[in-house]
Amino acid sequence: MLQQVLMFALGLTVLVVGADVLVRGASRLAVSFGVSPLVVGLTVVAFGTSAPEMAVSVGSALAGSPDLALGNVVGSNICNVLLILGISALITPLLVDEQIIRQEIPIMIGVSALLVVMALDGHLGLVESIVLFALVIAYTVFLIVQSRRASKAVQEEFGTDLPTSAWDRHWAVQVGLIATGLVMLIVGADWLVEAAVAFARAFGVSDLVVGLTVVAVGTSMPEIATSIVAAMRGQRDIAVGNVVGSNIFNILAVLGASGIASGTGLPVSEAARNFDLWVMLAVAFACLPIMITGREIARWEGGVFLAYYAAYTAWLVLQAQQHTSLPAFSGIMLGYVMPLTVITVVVSIVRGNGRRA
């Protein structure tokens, strides 16, 4: 077991470092060829933070562990909103950019709902996987076209998020960084998947639960680091945009590529259909009050997000162990916590609209 723990930790480290190396090389190479910093920020940098999810999920699909592939994406999306935005909002209230409110959040909710609908029959088919991947290509093209009309202020904002060092300005160094990052992603994903499957067998839990918890948080490390650093630097809209963009990419590109790589699509377990996918969709809708009121994510809301993530993780652990306290825990969540949250959200929306009026 110690060997598996070390393999997991090493694989995770290699994944995170590899993603950073890949993003640095690709960003600098794109800028060298005259691509605007905004386009790089919206595509290479934003999508690069999801490279660990891509490597792990595709590797899991090829290794015959489809539950791990699906659990990694679903768990990462839940983690991105509840854990990452929760921590970032506790550091400083998060201002949400107008484009994110009017465009990216609705798209995130839409693709989350699309995945739930596709998975209801218990299988994410090959054709459905191709559709998802085609949508991420269309979305990327749309962002590039849209960025050409962006203001100079927006261009400069995304440009500040790119590396500015001198040692990697030559194209040969940039290509070498990209190649090194890709190799590290492949190797790190292989080690992490092997260790995660071993954990599942040793503790008697499913690949889905391991993917939803340990692997999901591990592969979300780039998003965690990016959003927390952005919040501390005062780039509060970037902290939100990174999370929302990553969630869109996870569903469309990562699951799409995983289903295509398997050759037959991905089976969707009953547990995921009955609970986890709906939690992911509910978490996406948790951003709806922001879209309606057009306001910041306050510290207290960040605390609520963190509390919900803790409760969700606790439920997964209790359910995996079939613990005797599971019914009581579920009853408290459904009978008291959820209604109070709904009431709080409604009051928050009403007050927010009142201030805007």
Briefly say what this structure is.
The chain is an all-alpha fold and 357 residues long.
> What is the typical, i.e. mean, pLDDT?
79
- CA radius of gyration is 20 Å
Question: Which of globular, elongated, flat, extended, rod-shaped describes the shape?
Answer: globular
Considering DSSP H and I runs of 4 or more, what fraction of the residues is helical? over 70%
Helix/strand-derived category reads: mainly alpha
Strand line-up in the sheet with most strands: 1-2
Low-confidence stretches: none
Number of helical segments with 4 or more residues: 15
Q: Approximately how much beta-strand content do the residues carry?
A: under 5%
Description:
- It is a single chain.
- The protein is an all-alpha fold and 357 residues long.
- It contains 15 helices and two strands.
- The protein has a two-stranded antiparallel sheet.
List keywords for this structure.
357 residues; mainly alpha; two-stranded antiparallel sheet; 1% strand; globular
Question: What order do the helices and strands come in, and which of them pair?
Answer:
Elements: H1 2-32, H2 37-48, H3 51-62, H4 66-91, H5 98-119, E1 123-124, H6 126-147, H7 152-159, H8 171-203, H9 207-219, H10 221-232, H11 236-262, E2 266-267, H12 270-285, H13 288-293, H14 299-321, H15 326-356
Antiparallel strand pairs: 1-2
Helix pairs in contact: 1-2, 1-8, 2-6, 2-7, 3-4, 3-8, 3-11, 4-9, 4-10, 4-11, 4-12, 4-14, 5-11, 5-12, 6-11, 8-9, 10-11, 14-15
